[in-house]
Design goal:
This protein has helices spanning about 85-90, 95-105, 155-165, 170-180, 200-205; strands spanning about 5-10, 15-25, 30-35, 40-45, 55-60, 65-70, 115-120, 125, 135, 140-145, 215-225, 230-240, 245-255. It is an alpha+beta fold and about 270 residues long. It has a seven-stranded antiparallel beta sheet with strand order 3-4-5-6-7-8-9, with helices on one face.
Length: about 270
């Protein structure tokens, strides 16, 4: 994913409010969000090229999401797919802090990333361009292709808009979150970061919704989990230059008694 907006234990009805855009090359094959045939307790999209995912959750309440870290450094010498870090956490039962600490030992094998992982009671994050594993405090947070809460324009503006929705009901909340994710406003040059990709590319990537010819927002996702453990998930797919595709809407209830398995990070 390339934009995550998160209200964690900040909404009176929904302890988890998640809105995110997955930006990717249009040619990269992927499957829409669903329960996985080979791991039926995992729900999320699937990268059909490497088998991992950018966002997923389990029936036991585990959730993980990853963004790339944009710093102009080629990932050609990083043999592992970042999506397998998300899948590995979802498959296991290891505490999120311990999983992220163990994942950090393999950081050189991955291109730049920031990974969020947790469950019903706690969320943590780690970046292989950061300084370690940290707990995510209650409140509104944002993440793009850098570290958590780095104030890039779409992160800062998105957080402000999410904070204004913390009293909204499900319908208004969902509609407003999708409106935030759909924003194609290009940030002023003076507010753009310098990630060593050139000013024109910074402009193209600055909106919440990226609509390029070969690369852009492939999916907008809203995920709400209420205090009863009931999940509302909606994902809207898009093609080249923002052409609308299919929508996936699912509702299910978490079973926080957990699921079997060991978290797997390739050696």
């Amino acid at each position: 994913m390339c934009l995550i907006l998160l209200a964690w234990r900040a909404h009176p009805e929904f302890p988890l409010v998640f809105a995110g855009n997955r930006d990717e090359a249009y040619a990269r094959p992927s499957a829409a969000a669903d329960f996985w045939n080979d791991e039926p307790r995992i729900f999320g999209g699937r990268d059909l090229e490497q088998g991992g995912t950018w966002l997923g959750l389990t029936l036991s309440g585990r959730i993980a999401a990853v963004t790339n870290y944009r710093d102009g450094v080629s990932a050609r010498n990083a043999p592992r797919s970042r999506g397998e870090l998300v899948a590995g956490f979802l498959r296991g039962t290891e505490e999120p802090r311990a999983y992220l600490q163990r994942a950090a030992r393999h950081d050189p094998k991955y291109g730049g990333y920031t990974l969020i992982a947790g469950g019903p009671e706690q969320l943590y994050w780690h970046s292989n361009r950061g300084t370690g594993v940290a707990k995510i405090a209650a409140g509104v947070h944002g993440l793009s292709n850098h570290l958590l809460d780095t104030p890039w324009p779409k992160v800062a503006h998105g957080k402000e808009r999410v904070a204004a929705l913390l009293g909204a009901g499900e319908g208004e909340l969902t509609r407003s979150l999708f409106a935030i994710l759909a924003d194609r406003t290009v940030a002023p040059d003076a507010e753009l970061p310098d990630t060593r990709v050139g000013i024109q590319r910074e402009r193209e990537l600055s909106p919440s919704f990226v609509a390029g010819e070969r690369y852009g927002t492939r999916a907008c996702t809203v995920l709400l989990v209420n205090r009863a453990g009931e999940v509302m998930f909606e994902e809207r797919a898009f093609g080249a230059q923002g052409a609308p595709g299919d929508t996936v809407t699912r509702r299910f209830k978490l079973d926080t008694r957990g699921a079997p398995g060991d978290a797997r990070i390739p050696g």
